[in-house]
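Hi P.,

Sorry for the delay on this. The queue was packed all week, but I finally got your sequence through. Input first:
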Amino acid sequence: MNMLSESPRVVTIDASDDLDAAVAALVLANVEDPVMRWIFDTPWRVFTYAPQLYRVLATDAFHSGSVQWTDDGRAVACWQPPGVEHDGSEVAAIVREGCAPEKLGELGGVVEQLQHYRPKGPYWYLAALGVDPVAQSEGRGALLMKARLGECDAAHLPAYLWSSNQRNVPFYERHGFEVQAMLRVSTCPPMIPMVRPAR
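Then the structure:
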């Protein structure tokens, strides 16, 4: 890994004007994500619906004061704090509109399975993480993870995520997350629930 010679700072987004830039970084970072490309399976669908999906995730995190990014705008993490439950209806509507109808049943089956791996009691949930491809492997994702996970450890809380890209699993494992399962239904790429136990 090429660590940054001048590390950017991790800051909490506190102005809605910054959400456009955060969404753009998330879309760029995840444009090759296997599950994203399976759901939105044409270039038009990706660039029509992925920005809508990431805007909902970023807006939800913004309203709960838990969307962070590096101050150079290259990396973004959208978290859901303990005790906060976001209404998933907007995300579901975007997926229903943008996904080929024949895939919706398969997708619903996997998403239902994911719910069984969420920790009991309060926890932090990582809804989205992305680093601009031109700035990957320079330590920005690690900076974002360490910032939030430090809060988790101070409060002795677990963290949860599900990875839609197997290539990212070692990154999360380096930050203490443990694979709970490899979930796959029919042609949908694997979704991997991961939990970082309370410390």
